[in-house]
Specification:
Elements lengths: L1 H14 L3 H4 L7 E5 L6 H17 L3 E5 L6 H8 L7 E6 H10 L7 H4 E16 L8 H11 L4 E4 L5 H13 L4 E4 L3 H10 L4 E5 H10 L3 E5 L25 E9 L4 H15 L2 H8 L4 E2 L4 H22 L5
Helix pairs in contact: 1-11, 3-11, 5-13
């Protein structure tokens, strides 16, 4: 699979128009806005990307953390910037697709406000339980959840996050109902899960893997299509018989709408080149993620597919982010 991806990256780089390599941009520092606090998955990816682009394009790429309103603050900073390639967004699913749906008044629609540059990485989720829960696999968990009903407690890492939405998706698909406890981030959710205040959670593999390996929580299944190198003994939900239970956190680079095509092409070419660098791939894969460079057009198609799956789940929440 990795060899195929590398070949695709190489082909994409070769077919890019020549002016993508010769356009004068950038001639000054580029701001890379991350709509989260420092230290999270997207922030770490952004700093890896910024270092790589700085090396490839010989200009500073400065990461700026602008958290707030579920990521809307950071997203709006990019939307309102000049579409000249000097202010970009590096974000996970929420601020691009979900947060606008949860706002009192929708502040933007991603496909009108942004132009995709490229997907950067995809990180699967993992279902984790407190070790005291009397189940050993996901099928047993489903049977337990059906019996317990709303007495079963789920720790959500934030309203409208993919972690929260995957929980809603599972309930809809399997006709289950449990009690959701909202936390301000996955870290406090994991803390209470380990302490037994809640019974299960759904977290990014990158965040949960150390706790799984320490035995502080038990993993029931990952949400990828294939098993992961970082958790080789944890089966997928698919292989346990739940074919529709697939979900990921992605990171994507977005530019303001109407950013010049030649700038987008040069950015994408630099990302493709970075994706072929073993050190870059190692840094991303260390997070439990997969490097996933896509052309701007393919990134748009990917986002449209993700929106088609998850936006109805968001709307069904019938909730408003504060």
């Amino acid at each position: 699979m990795k060899k195929i991806m590398a070949l695709l990256f190489a082909i994409c780089a070769l077919v890019l128009p020549l002016h993508a390599q010769t356009v004068s941009w950038p001639t000054r520092p580029v701001r890379l806005i991350v709509p989260y606090p420092a230290g999270g998955n997207a922030d770490i990816v952004a700093r890896i990307v910024a270092n790589a682009l700085q090396a490839k394009l010989h200009e500073a790429f400065v990461v700026e953390n602008k958290a707030g309103a579920g990521g809307i603050v950071g997203a709006m900073a990019v939307i309102q910037a000049a579409p000249d390639g000097y202010t970009l967004l590096l974000s996970a699913n929420g601020p691009i697709l979900f947060a606008p749906e949860l706002a009192p008044q929708r502040p933007y629609e991603w496909n009108k406000a942004f132009t995709p540059v490229s997907l950067v990485s995809v990180t699967p989720l993992v279902v984790v339980i407190n070790p005291s829960l009397p189940v050993q696999d996901f099928k047993q968990f489903v049977d337990f959840a059906r019996k317990e009903g709303d007495k079963l407690t789920f720790a959500a890492g934030g309203l409208g996050t993919i972690n929260h939405l995957f929980s809603e998706y599972v309930q809809n698909k399997l006709n289950l109902k449990w009690t959701t406890v909202q936390y301000k981030g996955t870290a406090p959710a994991m803390t209470d899960l380990m302490g037994g205040q809640v019974q299960f959670s759904i977290d990014q593999v990158s965040s949960a893997a150390p706790f799984i390996q320490q035995g502080a929580v038990r993993a029931l299944g990952v949400t990828s299509e294939q098993r992961l190198t970082v958790l080789p003994n944890v089966p997928t939900l698919v292989e346990q018989g739940y074919q529709d239970l697939i979900g990921n956190t992605f990171t994507a680079m977005m530019a303001p709408a109407n950013t010049p095509t030649d700038v987008l092409e040069k950015l994408y070419a630099a990302l493709v080149e970075a994706a072929q660098d073993p050190k870059f791939r190692e840094d991303i894969e260390r997070l439990g993620a997969e490097v996933t460079a896509m052309t701007p057009q393919d990134s748009k198609i990917f986002l449209e597919r993700e929106s088609a799956v998850w936006t109805p789940v968001v709307r069904k929440l019938n909730a408003t982010a504060n």
